[in-house]
Amino acid sequence: MTKSTAFFKGMKRRLTLAMGLINNPRVLFLDEPTSGLDVQSNLIIRDVIRDLNARGVTVFLTTHNIEEANLACDRVEIINRGRIAAIDSPERLKKTIQSAQSIEVAFEPTDPRRLEELKQIPGVSEVRKEGDKFRLFTEDPSGVIAAIMEYAGDHNCKVLIVTTFGPSLEDVFIKLTGLEIRTKGVSTVD
């Protein structure tokens, strides 16, 4: 009787990576190496990629996960509809849209009506609800932070967190590809 050995997705990815390393390559192509993996497997594969790169191996990584590209790559190539939109380091790409800044804020108590109320703050160009937080886009972070604190006092709520962010690689991708985030008109099925 033969015993079947089944590997989980993370183990399969690690084995595939190991097979690619058997011949000690100078260049390695990896297509979505961490897609669908658990956190531990993802971290292991990222560590292997960093180690390979530190040893002089050029690693070409294709991914739809923009944050992964930001964390793992020295240079990023953004491709839109089969054409190269940009090639540079993640930080240089982010500097191309330096005006796009955002503030992440969470309040206690939570209230979904805050989304519309926060849109009324002067200097805010867009507000998104992200989990239990709100992200406010602005070109005047210090003025908006002051207005957020005033809003909290006026609405008898506590600010749990306020974090400022410069542009992300995702923001760059959206700007360079002309994509827009569309949430209006989306219907949900009960």
What does this structure look like?
The chain has helices spanning 9-21, 39-54, 66-72, 90-95, 114-118, 141-154, 169-177, and strands at 27-31, 58-62, 76-80, 83-88, 101-108, 124-130, 133-138, 158-165. It is an alpha+beta fold. The chain has two domains: 9-74, P-loop containing nucleotide triphosphate hydrolases (Rossmann fold, 3-Layer(aba) Sandwich); 101-167, Alpha-Beta Plaits. A four-stranded antiparallel sheet has the order 6-7-5-8. It has a two-stranded parallel ribbon with strand order 1-2. A two-stranded antiparallel ribbon has the order 3-4. α1 (9-21) runs parallel beside α2 (39-54). The chain starts with 8 loop residues before the first helix and ends in a 13-residue tail after the last helix.
Topology:
Layout: H1 9-21, E1 27-31, H2 39-54, E2 58-62, H3 66-72, E3 76-80, E4 83-88, H4 90-95, E5 101-108, H5 114-118, E6 124-130, E7 133-138, H6 141-154, E8 158-165, H7 169-177
Parallel strand pairs: 1-2
Antiparallel strand pairs: 3-4, 5-7, 5-8, 6-7
In short:
The chain is built from seven helices and eight strands. The chain has 190 residues and is of the alpha+beta class. The chain is elongated, with a radius of gyration of 22 Å.
